[in-house]
Amino acid sequence: MDWTAILEAALSFFLVVIALASAYLLLRIGGTFGRINTFLRRMDEEVIPLLSRLQVTMDEVNSQLGKADEMMSTLVDVTDRVETTARVMQMAVTTPVKKVAGLSAGVSEAILSLWSSSRGDKIE
Predict the structure, then answer these.
(1) How confident is the chain (124 residues) per 10-residue block, as mean pLDDT?
(2) Are the C-beta atoms of residues 103 and 109 closer than 8 Å to each other?
């Protein structure tokens, strides 16, 4: 045997080993892709319905927030009306009370003045 035959045999052996290693790696990669495919299919089956339910839930939450906003707006309106009513009632009550107090003070002073002058006392 000469060196070319030995080199050709070594090269053939090396190519067979590389082919077997490549076949093994391709089978492993195929299995990995199969698992990835199964994982993605399960994701489609589970996540898509979950996202749909989440969308429905978010729509309901937004609807409830809209109602809460309406209630808060109504509460602010009622508070403003109560405040206005209280202010009007305060003015309606305090103005006549002030006038009656002033009138009674004036009448009291007048009576006191008349009573003092009829007795001849000096007012101090």
Answers:
(1) 89 96 96 95 89 92 91 91 89 85 86 76 53
(2) no
AA identity, residue 79: T
Amino acid identity at 37: N
Contact 5, 13 (CB under 8 A): no
Complete DSSP assignment for 12-37: HHHHHHHHHHHHHHHHHHHHHHHHHH
Q: 109 with 116: CB under 8 angstroms?
A: no
Give me the count of residues in the chain: 124
pTM of the model: 0.44
The Cα diameter of the chain in Å comes to: 164
Residues 6+ apart with CB under 8 A from 123: 112, 113, 116
In the chain, which residue ranges form alpha helices assigned H by DSSP? 3-119
Q: What is the DSSP letter of 68?
A: H
